[in-house]
Fold each of these.
Amino acid sequence: MKIKKAVIPAAGLGTRILPVTKAMPKEMLPIIDKPAIQYIVEEAASSGITEIMIITSRGKSILEDHFDRAPELEQKLLESGEAKKELYDSIMSMNSLANIYFVRQQEPKGLGHAILLAKEFIGNDPFAVLYGDDVVTGEVPAISELCDAFEKYGKCVVGVKEVPDEIVRKCSSVKADKITDNIFSVSDMNEKPLPEEKFSNYAIMGRCVLTPEIFGLLEKTERGAGGEIQLTDAMKVIARTEGMTAVEFSGIRHDMGDKFEILKACIEEGLRREEFGDDLKKYIKQLAEKI
Ligand code: UTP
């Protein structure tokens, strides 16, 4: 069954990168000229997803504004003719990416709690989850790789990357048995494991495909790590009973909730940009000689 719906949880407080997130959602932080949330919505849309629910929270209405029409701006760009045509087209193309709906999480009770708010929107369909602060860049949209695995193996899917111990302990580790080079069968997982508790160095990285069964499990999930209702605690039940699939997606994941990762995302994306990629390369080389 083709996945047509996605949930983007974007209601977190972003405490790791304060003070910028005091009044500014981390999902609006730019990589060059595009906010994180737009990269993510574009990834979903280019994977065939047509209905997207974004979970926001107090102080994040700028996310709604970003996907709304901007008549004065559109008119001004249009009047500038050829000179601003490319900008006009890029602004207008955002209007037809997908149908986007918003709901507010009233308290930051965790990722699992945020996903639960999409229960009615999802109904009986399998759906994709793309974390609002995880941008993945690359040739193939990461969520399409997970959707393909869902169709092929018929089980819920998590996106993973192999990471060093110091990263695993901040994420969720999965018990993974190799099926192909980048696909694994998952029989267990845990959130923020201590070194002796980790199942493997494969950690969940901001992308999943789930069935509505997850909502019943989330409703029964007690607060876990950090006092929050954790999505991993509910997915763990599925992994242990029916099993899940993990896909090590091909793109590069950028955690927009981490200061150093944001810096790296801007540099890596900058190097890919035709307009100044070569200049940036020169600049980095000059700088490297001085440090
Ligand atoms: P994170 O744990 O990375 O986000 O959640 P956070 O809570 O903002 O992190 P800190 O404060 O810097 O440690 C992963 C995803 O889940 C969303 C976040 O917005 C992010 O996209 N989230 C998290 C919610 O929507 N609601 C929550 O209550 C918590």
Amino acid sequence: MTVVIKLGTSNITYPTGHLNIRHMESLVKVLSDLKNAGHQIVLVSSGAIAMGVGKLGLAERPADMPGKQAAAAVGQCELMYTYDKLFSEYNHTVAQVLLTGSDVEDAARRAHFVNTMTRLLKMGVLPVINENDTVATEEIAVGDNDTLAAIVGCAVGADLLVLLSDIDGLYTADPRVDLAARLIEQVAEVTPQIEALAGERGSGLSVGGMATKLKAARMCQDHGVDMVIANGADPNLLYDILAGLPVGTRFLGRGKKEEQ
Ligand code: GLU
């Protein structure tokens, strides 16, 4: 199975911006094991800005664009160094792929991207994707990695996109404020009612929230790709998710493709 897995900033860094070594190591171990089992894995990893903040010793995430871009440039390097080092321990090779919105909107550039991805996967490489934050100003940026991950999943014809976050999935209400909030296990269609369940924002150093995840779910449904939102705190959940067991919220996409 070809699976795109998106990690949020909060899955791999502490609020300080420094690497959460324990999390990162267990994620890399599970992903390596899934690759050994025969799955093709593509990682969309956030965390460049946060890790740049940590590495540069900044007190907080910069508010201005050049500040964010500089932090991302430093952090991306640290991020890839860490992935390369950890995946190498399990004999897996990573590749860095940086994209902007305009790269995937342009038909020729999108084709080049898909060709490169296809070759990387054929070579058994694990591509690690992020937005090219150095040049991704508002006009050309995808803007958030939930959407970027959905674009990637649809472009490579993935079977499944998994968005790992710091929440368990989509709830009937915001579980941080409403004790009666219930986890929705399965969504057959992203309707306006479902979209209305999205709260406003993500946490701390993160960019996306539920709104960007539901936008990603809609895109996946349109392209016949299954999508799961799950908590990244326990990477072992990925085994159950890939086995189709009920974990987090699953948005059905594959059935739709077969109906057409
Ligand atoms: N590209 C940003 C980073 O790596 C993250 C964007 C996102 O989390 O949606 O820091």
Amino acid sequence: MERKTRVRFAPSPTGPLHMGGVRTALYNYLFAKQRGGDFIIRIEDTDSQRFVPGAEKYIIEALNWCGIVPDEGVDAEGRVVETASERHPHAPYRQSQRKPIYRQYAEQLVADGFAYYAFDTAEELGAKRAEMEAAGQTFIYGQTTRMGLRNSLSMPEAEWKELLETRTDWTIRFKMPENRVVKMEDLIRGHVEVNTSTLDDKVLWKRADELPTYHLANIVDDHLMEITEVIRGEEWLPSLPLHYLLYEAFGWTETQPRFAHLSLLLKPDGKGKLSKRDGDRLGFPVFPLRWVNAEGEVSRGYREDGYFPEAFVNLLAMLGWNPGTEQELFSLEELIGAFSLERVVKSGARFNAEKAKWYNKEYLRKKSVSELTDLYMPILESKGVTGFSRDYVEKVVTLIQERATFVADFWDIASYLFVAPKTFVEKDAAKFWKEENYTLALKVADFILGFEGEFTKENLEGPLEEYIRSNEWPMGKVMNCLRLALVGASSGLGIADIVTLIGKEEFARRIEYIKTTL
Ligand code: GLU
């Protein structure tokens, strides 16, 4: 019988989620939803030394912002579920709360001859490592060294059994088979083979904190949670042979999930993994949300930088996947329909900051004026701008929507529609505010102020241009003089747009100001 698709995103709360991590979550989500399956969030927090307070909350909030909503693992309020229920049959979803589950599985592997107890202290291992390095060799705990170390394979039974009782710092290690070729299938990379001779005996469980390591917890939970596909970053590919062997050792190969390893997100120049430093250097975020670490160091976020979640999701989806057509804009719903692992690229996906902005600009263009106005109002308030009606702000937004990439750009593009310029761009003024131009411009200003029809852009624009043309005055120079008065620079919106918005009174004030200032 075909099993119901169940995939999981299994972050470790060791810091903020990198955008590559969000992409992994997104691809899992798309894969599940396309197949009518379940998307599960599991928190892999068994490494207490790397635990970072606030990271779990950050991860869930980031996924929420993107609209990546799990079927299991997190409740409607965004809390990781701790007790099982009909909707959350596999709770708890935090591995630290599943602690009692893992030991029996580790012990079972020992009993079946797939793992062993190891008693070497950190100092002993350190000394062994130093000794081998001095001889020009690298140390791994594995098939070539294990019999010379202190474990239940190398020691007499009575001796290790006593240590098992009396010591609390032992571990259970996987006994990597010798010289076996592990044959693996990856949904993105195809067939992969690895010889076990180079692989070490990984620690699976630690008596000291009675916690499993990532490998054991991950395999046991994927099995118990009935995961059908594991879609994760390629940094886990080297662990795949061990994971295959663990499924085999447990006798779970029948229901073993299929694997897909996603390539890395690369720096804009394609050389190496995209890092926070690249973002800082080139001026773009690598995290979905802003993050402040324990030292107070701030990492910028897409959300705080003014990206729309739809644009962020869209650009992430396209980093490493393509639909095979020219289409670039996809809503989350459309992505669910179009996504396929077959079209995920094997090579790394290069990040392009300009393209990221392009996506936001496209989404901004598609937004309703009303929604953009809602977003712009608080920005205006933060600039100390008050006293303008919503209707007025909507008119402004309509005029500049096409020119902006972010809502915050509205202010830079057209703050002069709210506050009069107090200074004038020097080189623009030097170029245009000359007597031969401004005497004409002032006549045009009088024409505008005396305009008798209804004062709208549509009414004013034609007659205004006609007036200048019929007098054979230089259109560009005259308009730029007026723009200087209205904007403070020789660039900006059309004169008819500006004056009909701000009104005759304000226009007259600005003309007066420039006359007396320049
Ligand atoms: N906890 C692992 C991580 O943080 C999960 C890897 C996996 O998906 O198996 O990436």
Amino acid sequence: MHLESAIEQSYELAKTRYQELGVNPDEALEALSNIPISVQCWQGDDVCGFEKTSGGTGGGILATGNYPGKARTADELRQDAEKLMELVPGKMRFSLHAIYLEADTPVKRDEIAPEHFAKWAAWAKEKGIGLDFNPTYFGHPMAADGFTLSSANEDVRRFWIEHGKCCRRISDYFGRELGTPCVMNTWIPDGFKDTPVNRFAARERLVKSLDEIFEEKYPAETMLDAVECKLFGIGLESCTVGSHEFYMNYAKEHGVMLTLDSGHFHPTEQISDKFSSILLFMKEILLHVSRPVRWDSDHVVVFDDELQNIANEVIRNGAERFHIGMDYFDATINRLAAWAIGYRNIQKALCKALLEPSDMLRKMETEGDYTGRLLVCEELKAMPWQAVYDYFCLRNGVPTGSELPAVVRDYEKRVQLKRI
Ligand code: RNT
Ligand code: ZN
């Protein structure tokens, strides 16, 4: 049998099975195609960026590996991202960091402006995708001692405040150009290796810096601010200035969004449990979907239990209240594959979540029928959701899972490996 008709027939069979539970897969796929996933540009080149000066991550994050073929220029990165668009269905967005600017001569980070991102904006417009943005508070001489916005050195602090302001201007520009709000995520690496004696002062300085950066108001139609909390990082094992409590309170008080990165908590702590609590008090959440292995290691997102929990809670709480971003950078495997695997896994998990008979399950739970809830939830795990996702791929003209490896290998051979 031809692959295409096998997929179509499997979908019809799957539909019958889901309809038995009162679920309509056609509607699920319609909803799925409207949930944007923001792809992190930095997986494409190991967080190097295109500044003509310093480099490296520093500050508690680390890309390891030297798999050949990484994008060396913005054009190559766009080329790879365009290939990714052929491999993934749905509404893709692209998330840039400030170090991915394009300029003929070096530009200081406190002087970057929309013009340095004009090519990105034009590209996104042509491709019909939205852009998100991130100030880059790491990999820079001014961040060498591990402090930026919470630095006790006024010159350093001022430098980074200016950077934050520049980045908000650029985000606003993206939003205006593309007609979809640009989510700007603020993450700083600030923290102490050893036990500090004045955590309060460092956090107080961070509040002051953020207040200044966020002082100028931009319309929600063009840009949205988010702040990303973290527990620890390499070299800042004892105290992270921008902790969960810090940013949760800051976000609530200042009306900015909170970012939850799945790698930024204790190893057994899951962000999926946090969404509902936060959404009772705040409008939206930015997610950084990642995979911590023993620590915030930023491994490629796989199809594991926590990913499913995240997707379930996104759907159950209303996907329109989430901005889903990916955040990992593995330099030991093909970077296009890394993107595609993580993106498709997130989407598969969302697909599975959308196929949940939520009314039935909620009713059982309210009525105390926990036996029924467990029976249905366990059966759902092995329902033919995969046939539904394959059909989604087919309908959107992208490879199904079984076709994916060959497509990646072909691109690797023709394009990426020629870059050495
Ligand atoms: C670091 C944060 C942050 C970065 C990116 C590159 O721990 O997760 O989001 O990964 O900005
Ligand atoms: Zn993150």
